[in-house]
């Protein structure tokens, strides 16, 4: 059984909520099929933990995407998730990247786009600059601008795991945040190896053993790619058939690859004729 889980908790004597996420299988599924340099793996791990934490703050069913873009050697890093904690992600970069590269080194003049797409209702998009030293600080700035709720985030990644924590003042509260500041100071003592290696209950006990904490049942987090042979066939159908026929004449097949999971879908001339006849392509090759 996967140990990738998101935990939500409340403090009984303070108007503060918390989240804790620990990830391994989903993280490895995202980076394992790509030959990413270490700094990109680290970045995607932090981004994955952050997306899970933010997904848990949503009050709707739907999707969330956190996308980093810039004019540096990394042009894109994105994690997409939903309210069921199903995640996928990818990064695009050029050249050699140092293991200790900063956000500014990676993205140059960069920005973060957070897109919320509810199943029902209006799509929302928020944008903040990548002008802080860490991804966590950039996300805190997003909350300060869009949610206007005091929020602190901690993100950690190792070779195989990613983890994160979030503290936030409850929306109904404002003004006196003394308890929030106290709990923030306690949470800031967390060490990377503790959050990455210890059970969530042990982490919470170490941090808050003098507090009354109500811990809710955890939610599993998983990797899920939305690509399929059917979706690839639908994409082919949007291309002019003469162009498709030209590719078939040259190569004998149409190949559609997925950036997220590296799946490869292959269509021959018979498949293509079926697609353009609005028939399902036979699932003979992948």
Secondary-structure map with pairings?
Layout: E1 5-11, E2 16-23, H1 25-31, H2 38-55, E3 62-70, E4 74-82, E5 86-93, H3 103-107, E6 110-118, E7 124-129, H4 135-147, E8 151-157, E9 162-169, H5 178-187, H6 192-197, H7 200-208, E10 213-215, E11 219-220, E12 222-223, H8 229-237, H9 241-251, E13 254-257, E14 264-267, H10 269-276
Helix content: 25-40%
Strand fraction equals 25-35%
The quaternary organization reads as single chain
Radius of gyration: 22 Å
Gross morphology is elongated
- Largest sheet data: 6 strands, antiparallel
| Chain-averaged pLDDT | 89
The rounded distance between the terminal residues' Cα atoms is: 28 Å
Pairing-aware structural class of the strands and helices? Answer: alpha+beta
- Give the helices and strands as they follow along the chain: EEHHEEEHEEHEEHHHEEEHHEEH
How many β-strand runs? 14
Characterize this entry briefly.
With 286 residues, this protein is an alpha+beta fold. It is built from 10 helices and 14 strands. The longest helix is centred in the first third of the chain and has 18 residues.
